[in-house]
Amino acid sequence: MAYHTTPYLLLFLPVALLFYQITPVRWRSYTLLIFSYLFFWSFSEKLIIYLIGTTFLTHHICIWMDTMDKRDKRKKRVLQLGIFLLLGTILCLKYRNFFFGNVSKLAMVLHIDWSYRDQLIFLPIGISFYTLSAIGYMTDVYWGTIQAETEIWRTALFLGFFPQIMEGPIARYSDVADTLYTGKSLEYRNVVDGYVRIFWGLFKKMVIADRMALMVNQVFDHYADYHGAVILAAAIGYVIQLYMEFSGCMDIIIGSGKLFGICLPENFRQPFCAKNPSEFWRRWHITLGAWFKAYIFYPVSVSGLVKKWNQYGRKHCGKHITRLVTSAIALFPVWVANGVWHGAQWNYIFYGMYYFVLIMLGIAVEPVRDCILETCHINPETRVWRMIQIAKTWVIIVVGELFFRANGLKAGWYMFCNMIKRFDAGQL
Q1: Paired residues of 284 in beta bridges
Q2: Residues 365-381: pLDDT tens digits?
Q3: Which entry of 34, 318, 332, 356 is 20 to 30 Å from 199 by CA?
Q4: Are 183 and 30 in contact (CB under 8 A)?
């Protein structure tokens, strides 16, 4: 039951709204929880056990940590245990075939008598999203920025709220706690705003994205039959399709939450107006980037390794080199995680490394760039310069999404080379 389908929009959502409104205020959160689990069961059936297990583990790990003093060293071990169990589950389900398949190929190259056959694994839809929400919740409890919920149904509703369970946004507890449990009655303004947002999302998804997908799928699935100009057109088309589909689904999701008076975080903010790759990722899939920043980038940037490097670098390497290496140490695991999170394929890992290298190059050439701008008396705030930067970022985005969408890394490289070597505008 996808968010843009008739069963969701004309059956499930209206019934959920009706039962929510007729339920007494103090029981409305339970109504939301029941409908959330019915929604998840409708497409996962017995795989709902993974969501239940994640909820049970997260709730009790957080309760356990809340009973400990902040100076108790065991508290960190409890957090590590919870993260290990959650990540271990998703790694086993989502990445086992990818890992052992590549080990098998390596063994073949080394003439080692070992092989692996892909196993049939039933992967719960949405596990990547609610796992990250669960880890973020546990970490926030460990840091002391929030208190653990004492009632498990509240943890269950936070992790399983039906509008966001399949595709995000990846909400932190502090993002939704103020509106998720209030049981607020339906309001005219919220219902109108929610349905306007839903209809706008449907337009983006069904009118633009689905039609664009016809051309994109044809070219990407039969890339060897097309010249570079057609591949370029398909790559640009895919960027548009992906944005319209993803942001359209976010509109439906955020609009669905709005109907109940629940505010979910925004996931896009005019990403194609970005002037560089870093800014693009601050505007695109905002909640994923914010999660990586809070729970990977920040802990690494204040780690003992980085502190030791900063002390050494300031004395021996200069300010710019020190900052460059510090950024590399903190950003590398972020972009590895970004690539792996999107899926168990090499082109996704390449996609993460692609942005890592580009961002690091941007940091590396900052002094040279600033010197050139100053020498040439170019004001970086002028409209012309901003448009040049935006155009440059568009090129970066299109190339990155070409590899992201391609049917494997080899296919992506073939398409990229054809786009340059066999470009023939007459083929359009």
Answers
A1: 268
A2: 888 888 888 888 888 88
A3: 34
A4: no
